[in-house]
Amino acid sequence: MLLLNGILLVMALQQELEQRQDASASLTQVLQALEKNGITVSRSILPEEKELPTLLVEQENLQTPPKQAQALLGHCSWEDEGGSVRLVYTGAAGRLETFSNGRFSAEFNPGEMMLNGQEPLVHGLAKLSCLEFSGELTDRRSSGEEEILTFRQNLDGVPVFNAVAELHYQNGGLHTMEGQRIFGEVSVLKESDMLNVPTMLMRFLGQRNESGRMFSQIYSITAGYHLSNSRPYTLTPVWYVETDSGSYMLNGSDGKML
Fold first, then answer.
1. What phi, psi does 68 have (nearest 5°)?
2. What is the CA radius of gyration of the chain?
């Protein structure tokens, strides 16, 4: 019995080694094809294969509830503009306008959202957390007297590329913020059928050549989600590719550009 188990283990290890060798050879051929088409990509930036399912946002109405608005503005009143499609909250700290698709826009009264020595990155994440938005900083820039921070929301550590919030700081305080976010429960709508990295790259190359979009270097490739803009709200797996001419989102199952 021990001998049989040993033989089975050796066979399994050999099969796994052959699969890895085949995958490595396939990837090498793809990288060579990209190079022939004038595209440079370092093997070191290529991600591991990812299996992300399509998700359904259980809370179909993504409208901001009063408890979130009050966490941001303090005690406030609100107006319902037609079936909770658009709610406007007003409090001492300012005004928050929210929509049933998860979009929001806030304008704060002078002196209400001061940094008081706090780092804008920390301050901004704290204010976004009031709306159940957790994520990471993706851009930070200055425009005149304003400092603008852009955050991208994460869902259990996976980026949602079009769930983004932009915060504007001026005169030592937060002046405005706006964006799109997800909150509530999600469930699996469809199991993962994501393309592997070599296949995705080849389809990306084909679309690049057909469309005339030109780029010569790929900087990063990340797996994540794209939030649909209509009901039922779903999170579709995508590959996000950053190049020297801009960023592209490709549907995870067929590689088509979104």
1. -70, -45
2. 23
What CA–CA distance (Å, rounded) separates 38 from 42? 13
CA distance 233 to 46: 30
Q: Is 189 helix (H, G, I), strand (E, B) or coil?
A: strand
d(CA 66, CA 33) in angstroms, rounded, equals 54
Please report where in the chains the tokens 């966490």 appear, as a residue: 71
Residue 189: partners with Cβ closer than 8 Å, 6 or more residues away = 53, 54, 55, 56, 234
**Residues pairing with 163 in the sheet:** none
Q: What does the pLDDT look like over 38-78, one tens digit per residue?
A: 999 999 999 988 999 999 998 767 889 999 999 999 999 99
- Tell me which residue of 175, 237, 241 sits closest to 207, measured CA to CA: 241
pLDDT in tens, 152-192: 999 999 999 999 999 999 999 999 999 999 988 899 999 99
Residue 14 CB-density burial (10 A; 0-12 exposed, 13-18 middle, 19+ buried): exposed
Report the C-alpha gap between 114 and 174 in whole angstroms. Answer: 6
Angstrom distance (rounded) from CA 97 to CA 56: 25
Q: Which residues contact 163 (CB under 8 A, 6 or more apart)?
A: 102, 133, 135, 152, 153, 179, 180, 181, 182, 227
In the beta sheet, which residues pair with residue 90?
Answer: 77, 95
CA neighbours closer than 13 Å in the CB half-sphere of residue 131? 32
Decide: 52 and 192 in contact? Cβ < 8 Å. yes
